Amino acid sequence: MSSFDCRTAFVSDVHLGTRDCRAAYLLDFLKRLDCDRLVLVGDVFDLWAMRRRVVWTREQSAILEHVFALAENGTEVIYIPGNHDEHMRRLIGSEIRGVRILRNMEHETADGRRFLVSHGDEFDDEVRHSRFQHHIGDLSYQFLLQISYWVDRLRRRMQRPYWSLSTWAKTRVGRVRDYIGRFEAAATRAAREGGYDGYIGGHIHKAAISPRHGILYCNTGDWVEHCTALIEDHGGYLHLVHWSDHARLDASDSGRTGAGRDTGRLPPELAWLYAAAATTTTLR
């Protein structure tokens, strides 16, 4: 599998400190990544789950050390704490080993578009998702992840590719789909009211690149179920990269990816990702 370079990479919802964190995949992604700016868009740590139980692996430690190494070697690294690591918001405005901690930020792409970047939990009240409801939903979600964990282990023994039971379930629950739609609308509205061209966030574990009424809505996804990251190429286009049992390019705001599209026009550093969709590389 080739390495690639890009202008900016956005990663969120890693949930370090839990068994559900797909640390091996993220570490592999980061080691192959060469970017000018890396933005960690919240829930890097899961302090909620760590109150109950801490699961910390060598791969998770290696992720932190690699991020710090990137910052110390010239990559601009920005960390925006989310709701699961909200206690880190006490450090907003400070810098740790070259990593700047911000509440939110504006990102300007190479082609001059301005994006509001935040974790996204600030929209929970607006979409009528109270803190109590969020905790109840989180418990239900954790239950699904537990089942998904064992399903994944069984599929690995059968040499089948990674498949997320919780993702499958979410697409079939009307209330969840409705919440995701309201969240996307709230984020899009915030970007429009702020005079931005688009929004980039995480929080809901639903990766996406989609235009909404003249605003480009982007969600980085997560590293618990989807193993996705949002990247900006050197021309300013945004792409959604899926990085689990195999790497592939899932979506692009340039409209140049997908079945039947002209993948030959993709930037060279990304074209191999699309071609790699048929190649499976199992990570242990």
Structural write-up:
- The C terminus is likely disordered.
- α1 runs parallel beside α3.
- It is globular and about 50 Å long.
- It starts with a strand and ends in a 9-residue tail after the last helix.
- It has about 280 residues and is an alpha/beta fold.
- An eight-stranded mixed beta sheet has the order 4-5-3-2-1-11-12-13, with helices on one face. A five-stranded mixed beta sheet has the order 6-7-8-10-9, with helices on one face.
- It is built from seven helices and 13 strands.
- Helices cover about 30% and strands about 25% of the residues.
SSE map:
Layout: E1 4-11, H1 23-32, E2 33-40, H2 47-52, H3 58-72, E3 76-79, E4 95-96, E5 99-101, E6 105-108, E7 114-117, H4 131-157, H5 165-170, H6 174-193, E8 198-201, E9 208-212, E10 215-219, E11 228-232, E12 238-243, E13 247-252, H7 268-275
Parallel strand pairs: 1-2, 2-3, 3-5, 7-8, 8-10
Antiparallel strand pairs: 1-11, 4-5, 6-7, 9-10, 11-12, 12-13
